[in-house]
Amino acid sequence: MSAADGPAALVVGEALVDVVHREDGAGGATTREHPGGSPANVALGLARLERRATLLTRLVDDERGRTVLAHLRGSGVELAAPLLPAEGGARTSTAQAHLDADGGAQYEFDLEWSLPEEVLADVLAAGERPLVVCTGSLGTALEPGAAQVSRLLDALRPTTTVVYDPNLRPSIIGTAEAARPGVEALVATADVVKLSAEDAEWLFPDRAPEETVRSWLGLGPSVVVLTRGGDGALAVCAAGEVDEPGRRVDVADTVGAGDSFTGGLVDALWSAGLLGGERRGALAGVDLEVLRGCVAAATDVSAVTVSRPGADPPTRAELERR
Question: 287: helix, coil or strand?
Fold first, then answer.
């Protein structure tokens, strides 16, 4: 069976263009544009791993929007909504990514986030519900779209595994104190949560990131994973904890690293038969060795992504060759 014939992942959130600024070490800088957006990167990663992935997002019919569309379709991502007309000042969103000497990125956004109500209605009216829905980042933080995403998750949750990555952007969402209630409400809705150490430290500067993921397990998810860059990942579940080491790679940059980890984790849980509303009990009781394998697979995917510029996750064939 091909990916087009099988169950689907629905990914909900922003798609945009990353405008990447990198210092060249001689006092100058280079600027390059890459299609991006955290949820769009997750959809791309799943499609490259030969999963049927549909992205529900907002793109405008301008040069950048068409570039993002071609990029996504080139890897097999389906779009749930057409491009919006480029009129009335509407434009495809951008993220200015400023890279430091280690390839780490700081972002500034020009973003509008909302979804056509008729498209939401079509998604909910479809006879086939997705096996898994993935969301996070600005798609769950910026109004008016964030409220639409929350409604969608509530409607899909009975039949669908919910995966959430906060992927916080302080330059847009404001203070940690203001962000915490909304983030933790989504954690309580989700079955699987992926949190970066950087986000954990920003949200809760007075406690270790490991303590945050342990406390979040008590809010309702079956699995919570903390990613720590080169130091690997910690996954917690009812059966205990898995501590997966990082991979030794030459880092080009970290753009899309967390998103590719999320895609790799969803793919591995899919292979383990742990996705879908009817498998919620099995996911809640996941065996530690099964979870270890899933986190290891996600770490491998992320390691490939950081070894090359931009959000460029590996294909299934590339992973198999490794």
Answer: coil
pLDDT of residue 1: 35
- Give the Å distances, CA to CA, from 254 to 23, 30, 99, 101, 248: 15, 17, 9, 11, 14
Region of 76 (left: φ > 0; alpha: ψ -120 to 50; beta: rest) is: left
Would you place residue 2 in the very low, low, confident or very high pLDDT band (cuts 50, 70, 90)?
A: very low
pLDDT(247) > 60:
yes
User: Which residues, including other chains, have CB under 8 Å from residue 169's CB and lie 6 or more apart?
Assistant: 107, 109, 137, 138, 141
In angstroms, the CA 274 to CA 204 distance is 30
pTM: 0.93
Segment among 22-26, 105-109, 217-221 with least mean pLDDT: 22-26
CA distance 260 to 311: 8
* Residue 18 Ramachandran class (φ > 0 left, ψ -120 to 50 alpha, else beta): beta
Reference 193, options 170, 167, 231; nearest CA is: 167
**What distance in Å separates the CA atoms of residue 237 and residue 224, rounded to the nearest whole number?**
7
* 3 state DSSP class of 190: coil
> What string of DSSP letters covers 72-83?
HHHTT-EESSPP
Position 262 pLDDT exceeds 60: yes
- Beta bridge partner(s), residue 107: 97
pLDDT in tens, 71-97: 999 999 999 999 999 998 899 999 887
One-letter amino acid for residue 71 of the chain: H
C-alpha of 195 from chain center: 10
Q: What string of DSSP letters covers 27-60?
A: S-EEEEEEEE-HHHHHHHHHHHTT-EEEEE---B
